[in-house]
Amino acid sequence: MAQLPDPVEGHIAKAFDAALSDLRLQIVSMGGLVIDQVSAAVRALLDGDATVAELVLSREHTVNELERFVDREAFQLIALHQPMASDLRMAKAVSRITIELERAGDEAKKIAKFAARLATGEPQGPVLAVSPYLRHMAELTNGMLRDAVRSLDESDAEMARAVRARDSELDHEFAAALRQIMSLAMQDARFLGATIDTVFALKGLERIGDHAKNIAEQVEFVASGEDVRHKAKHAEAGTPEK
């Protein structure tokens, strides 16, 4: 006689799937907010707009609250449901992705703080000197973030791999911007303080790209069960993988 499915077990599985789906939606929402934070912070910097900078700073607590909420819910899911391997990977990845998004939000906050100082009289020369790079790097980082979050939402490992591939273009832009701004600093020492702040803004955008890449790696991990972070590190170092 065939064994009937356990209705309780089926109910638990459905509850787990619903909770995990809700967490993914929360990440997509958080990702949208962080993308907007990055875009607004760079806009505030380029336009010297203190109002937009303050908007970014005022929304920082929302990013942090979302990170804490999703991390707590992911931990409870793992503790209560003891999921199968693929679901366990997703639950763990969700927690890690929120950390990456929160750190990207932190970088946007730092850029916004610089923008607020710039609006109150800090020399604008260094920012103007590298404004094309700032704008292009912001477009790259936001595009990487958007596609990384979308790849999670759509379970698209190919899109995630494409995000990782774009990181080298962002690194190239960062290096070119540094050369440009160092040339300016050597010409006029009055810009030294503002130059340092601008370098940190550029570095912040480069780090946001790294966070997007890390999110994409988590998506690939969910899809394949293979931790591609170590493969990427070996490839960057030019050493064979063990």
TrEMBL record:
It is found in: Cytoplasm. InterPro entries: PhoU, PhoU-like_sf, PhoU_dom. Gene3D superfamilies: Phosphate transport system protein phou homolog 2, domain 2 (1.20.58.220). Pfam families: PhoU (PF01895). Keywords: Cytoplasm, Phosphate transport, Transport. Residues 27-114, 134-219 form the PhoU domain. Its main location: cytoplasm. Plays a role in the regulation of phosphate uptake. Homodimer. Belongs to the PhoU family. PANTHER family: PHOSPHATE-SPECIFIC TRANSPORT SYSTEM ACCESSORY PROTEIN PHOU. This is Phosphate-specific transport system accessory protein PhoU. The gene is phoU.
